[in-house]
Design brief:
The chain contains 18 helices and 19 strands. α2 packs across α3 and α12 crosses α14. The longest helix is centred in the C-terminal third of the chain and has 27 residues. It starts with a strand and ends in a 9-residue tail after the last helix.
Length: 490
């Protein structure tokens, strides 16, 4: 029996952490400790909304140096991040241009152009990936059209976690779960789709063979010269979060709740039918099989409202929100107008005013509008997913930072009318750790790891209650989403 020290680097769209997990094989005990936390903020560079990947690398190395100073020698290191975005390298391995964020407006109109040129049904049949205006496919087309000086210098294109793998090890890698988010991977072959790459105007030679999670990319050397394996986990943070979601029964769905809400279910086969296309369902790669899911704007709306109104006590805001009347004002959270408005407060208020609804003025009224709207959208999406698979769901697991919001969890249970099991909070980090433990031979598979999660990180259950406000408001909410320009093909 062994003990292991596992480093999980978990980067989100607003913050990053270097976490240390300790695994005691004899007791099957798993614990987490935060080593370093840091902000991840977008910056305006060269006229684009960009990530500061040099700063992210600096913070990661600082976290690893801290462990070194504590005389902790990790058994392995893994990295997970958001999807879609890439870093470009030249033939010498130096960064080309900027790491442009998916929230930048450079892709405006390109999704529609792709649908005109190639047809939406053909793109979906080739990829099984939902239409989002910021998918990498459209980012690559934007690169071709708007940044030819950058494109001329490119030799490699790496997803964000694989770029960080490269910076730690010097080796190139293209991890499968993150690669699927690009809408450039062929769903049948599992390889880069040359027709789509051709439409985007990029060279297929930029991309290597996608590899399933679990391979050792290379080694990072600490200050004492120890070679630490860097393992490519399920590098898309939602893929890692699903690994740590204790889906212990067949009829269970998941909701990874954070800046984005990702609602879906696991399947060994993709769902890429016409019905799935109409519902804009995506088939992203998982550690085992597919993550059949739908993107929902999530708590990004609340984060922006809190930033604008300088609210730092979220618990107090939620307590105030609970006292607000239900479903007075509603929005369509997936309306494209909420991707990155100048003011989220104004955008929500304008959306309500345009629909003739009461305009929320206070922070609590704005939050209630967001929570009610999300709960109603969760209800719509889980119904779409149930219809797609041909049977209802009996349970919904909410994981990630949003699982701490007990009020929203209860609204979700009430709207969906099924039990909601909340936790673990650190799902992406734990899934990252789980992938490493499986790769190291400490655990057999994802199911084995999920048993460990349940035993080490207790869940909280929210039973559905009768909520007449949701029933009365569903038709009104559905009508809202029909004319909205959503993050979707319509």
């Amino acid at each position: 029996m062994t003990t292991r020290n596992i480093v999980a680097i978990d980067l989100g769209a607003s913050s990053g952490r270097v976490m240390l997990a300790h695994w005691d094989a004899a007791q099957r005990h798993l614990s987490l400790r935060q080593v370093r936390r840091f902000a991840n903020t977008r910056q305006r560079r060269a006229g684009y909304d960009c990530w500061d990947v040099a700063l992210l690398e600096q913070e990661i190395r600082a976290g690893l140096a801290q462990l070194d100073a504590e005389s902790v020698v990790p058994d392995s290191i893994g990295i997970d991040t958001w999807g879609v975005d890439m870093v470009l390298l030249d033939a010498c391995g130096e960064q080309v241009g900027e790491a442009v964020s998916y929230r930048d407006a450079r892709t405006h109109g390109l999704m529609e152009q792709a649908q005109r040129d190639l047809s939406h049904s053909a793109i979906y049949a080739r990829t099984g990936i939902q239409f989002l205006p910021f998918n990498t496919l459209y980012q690559m087309r934007a690169l071709h059209q708007q940044q030819p000086d950058w494109q001329a210098r490119v030799a490699h294109a790496l997803m964000i976690p694989d770029y960080l793998h490269y910076r730690l090890t010097g080796n190139l890698n293209w991890e499968y779960t993150n690669a699927t988010t690009t809408q450039m991977l062929n769903i049948d072959s599992g390889e880069w789709d040359r027709e789509l790459l051709g439409w985007a105007g990029v060279d297929a030679a930029w991309f290597g063979q996608p590899r399933a999670p679990g391979n050792t990319v290379g080694h990072w050397h600490n200050a004492h010269g120890a070679a630490i394996p860097v393992i490519a986990v399920a590098t898309h943070d939602t893929a890692s979060a699903v690994v740590a979601t204790p889906l212990m029964q067949e009829d269970a769905a998941y909701l990874s709740s954070g800046t984005w809400s990702l609602m879906g279910f696991e399947s060994l086969q993709p769902y890429a039918s016409e019905a799935a296309l109409r519902a804009n369902i995506t088939n992203e790669g998982g550690a085992e099989g597919y993550r059949v899911l739908k993107n929902i704007m999530g708590l990004w709306l609340l984060q922006r409202v809190c930033d604008e109104l300088h609210i730092d006590d979220l618990s107090q805001l939620i307590n105030q929100t609970e006292r607000q009347p239900a479903c007075v004002s509603l929005i369509s959270p997936n309306d494209a107008r909420f991707i990155n408005p100048d003011s989220m407060v104004n955008e929500i208020q304008n959306a309500c005013a345009e629909q003739g609804m009461p305009v929320p003025q206070s922070a609590a009224a704005l939050a209630r509008c967001i929570f009610d709207s999300l709960a109603l959208l969760y209800r719509e999406v889980i119904a779409e997913l149930a219809q797609l698979r041909g049977k209802p769901f009996r349970q919904l697991h909410v994981v990630g930072g949003g699982s701490q919001n007990h009020f929203l969890n209860q609204l979700c249970a009430d709207a969906c009318q099924i039990p909601v099991l909340a936790g673990p909070i650190e799902a992406s980090t734990l899934g990252n750790v789980g992938c490493q433990l499986i790769a190291l031979g400490e655990l057999t598979d994802v199911a084995d790891f999920r048993c460990c999660v349940v035993n080490n990180f207790p869940l909280k259950t929210f039973e559905p209650q009768t909520n007449s406000a949701f029933g009365a408001s569903q038709a009104r909410f559905t009508a809202l989403s029909q004319p909205a320009k959503e993050l979707a093909y319509d």
